[in-house]
Amino acid sequence: MIEIKNLTKIFTSSDESKIVTALKNINLTIEDGEIYGIIGTSGAGKSTLVRCINLLEKPTSGQVLIDGKDLTKLTASEMRRERQKIGMIFQHFNLLWSRTVSGNIAFPLEIAGCPKQEMDKRVSELLELVGLTDKADAYPSQLSGGQKQRVGIARALANHPKVLLSDEATSALDPETTASILELLKTINKELGVTIVVITHEMSVIKEICDRVSVIEKAEIVETGTTVELFTNPKTDIARRFINSVVKTSLPAGFNEKVLSGLLVRLTFIGESAEKPVLSQLVRKFNVDANVLLGSIDNLKDTTFGTLTVELQGNESSIKQGIAFLKDKGIKVEVIQE
Ligand SMILES: Nc1ncnc2c1ncn2[C@@H]1O[C@H](COP(=O)(O)OP(=O)(O)O)[C@@H](O)[C@H]1O
Ligand SMILES: [Mg+2]
After folding, report:
1. Stretch 168-174: mean pLDDT
2. CATH architecture for the domain at 257-337
């Protein structure tokens, strides 16, 4: 478990003329075995936060505890040992260009003083895990972006870390390659039980793989919840903006809501309720007309998520009963316009 308590990080320029508060009183808990997302726009403090988790940056105040051990209080040699339990991958891969794929993956093993035979065995296991066995002797310059990130992942896992930190690891990749890397991260999480912390500015990444998520804005965590909670019930404007970037829940700009004569509602479906024909039941049972204006259905990590923007027409009491029926079926109903 990773616990971050009241973490603040202030950067001060050497002549103290410039002060940047990169993190302000951050509190969050990441459980073993989960995929935890941290989303925010550029400059929000995401990289500083991961750098505090892997001890590349010393917090100005506050604590980072891994399995109850306070990282801010370790000696240099304890710190080296703790750092081996944490792997990290980066947007620009940070590979060693003069070493082959195998050489890159072996590098952290060499540093840890791993015997040659054991090292060779581990490297070939890792090559297989990331699907690069046939590229063992290639150089990074001969690889595609996705293949380079696979090398980065294999290298990060070399010393059997408990935690993998990913800082914008798919941001330089095209959508298809991103999907395959996210799939690989999911496999690593599920099969090796590695806890993964995903830093991103892309909601599509959160949507694909994260169990829980925190939103960071201007150095502060403004919202935390399960991915499903965030999608169905965002509390901050920034969370709503991130959601809107991947699922269209608002009507197009220029749509004139005044032309509607009925009640405009937004329905949000999760899991099973997304697959049931509730709307046709509503129409039949309550004599309410439903005019669908906008709809989308999407996959969150392990569940289905749908929204429908609908104009309901009928008499007031049947609409009221109809809405109660929808809510009873586990659908969230928001009235957008009366
Ligand atoms: N080493 C540093 N010295 C001074 N300011 C820094 C340093 N690292 C980051 N910052 C500042 O801290 C803020 C957060 O940066 P960062 O954590 O990189 O954000 P993000 O990863 O979300 O884009 C920015 O204003 C950035 O300029
Ligand atoms: Mg960053």
Report:
1. 96
2. 2-Layer Sandwich (3.30)
